[in-house]
Structure formats: structure tokens, C-alpha cells
Amino acid sequence: MVTKFAYPLLKKSSNPHVLTLSPPLNFDIKWFQSHVAYTLSKYNMSLMASSWAEEFRKDGIASNSLWPGTLIATAAVKNLPGGERLFQLSRKPEIMADAAFYILGKDSKTTTGHHFLDEDVLRAEGIQNLDSYSVTPGGALQRDLFL
């Protein structure tokens, strides 16, 4: 609904973007067997982002998705079983904000239809050392779901 109601305003923007926080599509059955509802809801968002990229292309509106390469240190992670340990294996939310900043700064006419990972975006911008984003700098990191 947000995208639907934002569309007329996006058409007036000089560099319009829709950025969905959803994973790259990975149809390995292991992602469906234990949490099918969550997987379908996230993949639906990714499919919508891809579909919007094509639908909005004529108006120069970009549509992409962004997903973390590792767990992100949020209250949701802390509330999982073993959450405190998982929190220490996570990156700070700032990595997602910085990745979104770089994506949204790209030309909307040419950067559309992608499923980005936060760490890939930053590395493409020349940021090779991502240690400052780790809750435990230099420590092990837990890959996120769907990767």
C-alpha cells in the first residue's frame, strides 16, 4: 500500500527509489521446511521488488531489495533462543543504513531490479574492512537466513 500511494510522488522525484528489506531469492527447500510462512512473506516482498522494477521502469523509478549478509543486532535477535550469543555474532544496524544510503544515491534509471546484500554494496563502494560494523570487532559472524 505504501508503494501504491507513494507512486505518484515518486514519479515527480528526480531520482526515485523503492527499497524493500527482503532477501535474494533462494528456493532451496530448507528455507521452507521449518518456517514456510516467514519464508513466503519475505520472498513475496522480493518478488514484488522485482516486479515493481519492471512495472516502474518506464517512469525511471528504481525498485531493489536489500538484505543483511549476517544477523543484525536488534531486539528481535536478542529475543531468539540463545539471543545474547547471537547478538554478539551480529553486525550493527548501521551497516544496513549505510548500504541503503549508497543504493538510494545511485541513478534510479540504471540501478533497478537488484537484490543487494549489505556487505556487497559497501565493498563495491570501496569499503573493504567491515569490522567497525561488528558488535564484536574481529569476532565470528552468523550468516543471515536465506544465504
Topology:
Layout: H1 2-12, E1 17-21, H2 30-33, H3 36-56, E2 62-67, H4 75-78, H5 83-88, H6 94-104, E3 115-117, H7 118-124
Parallel strand pairs: 1-2, 2-3
Total beta strands: 3
CATH class: Alpha Beta
At CATH level 3, the topology is: Rossmann fold
| Poorly predicted regions | none
Major sheet characteristics: 3 strands, parallel
CATH architecture verdict? 3-Layer(aba) Sandwich
Query: Helical proportion?
Result: 40-55%
Give me the secondary-structure category: mainly alpha
Classified in CATH, the superfamily is NAD(P)-binding Rossmann-like Domain
Net shape: globular
Based on CA atoms alone, the radius of gyration comes out at 16 Å
- Tell me the count of domains: 1
How would you describe the overall organization of this protein?
This protein is mainly alpha-helical and 147 residues long. It has one domain (14-133): Rossmann fold, CATH 3.40.50.720. Helices cover 44% and strands 10% of the residues. The protein contains seven helices and three strands. It has a three-stranded parallel β-sheet with strand order 1-2-3, sandwiched between helices. It is globular and about 45 Å long.
